[in-house]
Give the backbone structure.
Amino acid sequence: MLDRHGCPLMPCHPARARKLLAGGRAVVARHTPFAIHVKDRTVGESEVSGVALRIDPGSRGTGIAVNHDVVAGDVDPGESSTTRRGLYAVELCHRGAQIRRSMEQRAAYRRRRRSANRRYRAPRFANRTRPRGWLPPSLRHRVDTTFSHVMRLANLFPVTELHVEKVSFDTHALGLGKESLNGVEYQQGTLAGFEARQYLLEKWGRACAYCGASGLPLQIDHIQPKGRGGSDRISNLTLACAACNQAKAARPVEEFPAEQPTRLARIVNQTKAPLRDAAAVNATRWQLWDELARIGLPAAAWSGGRTKYNRTTQGLAKSHTLDALAVGELDGGTRIVRYPHTVLVTAATGRGCYARTRPDKFGFPRLRLPRRKQHFGFATGDLVRAVVPRGKFAGKYTGRVAVRASGTHRIAVPGGYADVRHKYLRLLQRGDGYGYSTRGETRS
Ligand SMILES: [Zn+2]
C-alpha cells in the first residue's frame, strides 16, 4: 500500500484493498507484486509501525519474507507477548546455471576461433587481473538480483530492519574464534546443538569418520573419550554411525580403527585442520551482506544453524520462504503465528540479449533477428492479459508474452502456451526481467 506521494504504508488485507479500489479511494500502482495507491492518505496521517525483511540466500533460490512483530498488551505471566506474522513471501529463482552455460558456450566459440584456420594468436585469458570482490557472472547475478529485490520491496513496504542469513554456522559461538569456549553444549535440540551439528556435518563430509558410511543417521562422538580426558570442545567431536559409535565406546581414537592406519591418520589430520574456507565462507552471501549493509537500514546477520533451529522448534515445513521467516533471533519465546499461504515465485529471466543474430552450432551467424524489440506495442517479457473470443486458443490468459513480428504473440501459460493476436492483448505490466507465478506455501 502506497500513500498519495508514493511512500509505503503498512500492507493491508486483500479484502480491504478491494474495498478501497471499489470505493475509488485507491488506484492500482503495480500489478505484480500487487500494490495500490491510496489517494487520500499520507504517511504522516497514518500509523506506520514498520516491517522487517528477512532473507535466506540459496544457490538456486532465495527466500525473502516480509514480517511484522506484534507485541500484545495483556498476556498471562510466563507467556511471550511477541508474535511474528509473515505478511508477504517471495521466492526468487536464480538462473546461475543458465548464465554459466552461456559463458561456457562463449568461451568455446572463442577457443575455436583461436585454433581455427588462422594465424597463431597467443592466448590472452591469463594476463588479466580481476578487481577485488570479483565473482563469476553466475554468482554475481545471485547477489545482484537479490539486492534489487530487496530494494524493490523496500519501495513497497515500510522496511525498518533487515535480517540476513550470512553464514552456515556461527563459528564464534562454537568457540573456534580466538577466545575459546569450553564445554560446548552440543546436545540436539538446542541452538548451540544445531550449530555444532551443522558444523560437524560440513567438516566431516556428512559421513561416519570411522567407516565412511553416509546417508544414515550420524551420532556425535568424542574423538578422545571424555573418560580419558577428552574435552567437549568442538575440535574433539566427530560424527560416527551408530555401529561405529558403539564399537568404539570409550576407547581412544588410536586404538579403535587400529586395522586401518590410513584412516586414523586422516581422522587426526582432519581434527587439526581448520574447516576449508570455501565450506565455511560462502562468497556470494558475504558479498550480499556487504551490499545490504551499505543501504543504511539496520541490518543483522545470522547463521543457518539458528534458522534451522527456529524453523524446527516452530514446527514449520521446509521451504525457502519459511526459512526466511525463521531467520534471526526469536527472543523471549517469540512465536511465528502466521505466514502467507501463497508465495510469489519470481524467476529471473533476463531481458533478452543485444545480439541480433543467432549462431549455428559452429558459431557462424545464421538467423537474423529484427532490429526492433517491440511489435504492436508489446515486447517480450511483458505481463499481459488475453481475452480470446474464438478459435483454437479461445479463453482468458494472463502471463508473459513472447512477441513475433507477425503480430501473433505467444503467451506462456501453466502447462503450455497460447498464440494470440495482439488485438486481444492488454498490457498489465512492462517486462522487468522476471517471470511471475505463485505457489502454495509448503505445509508441515
Ligand atoms: Zn561408521
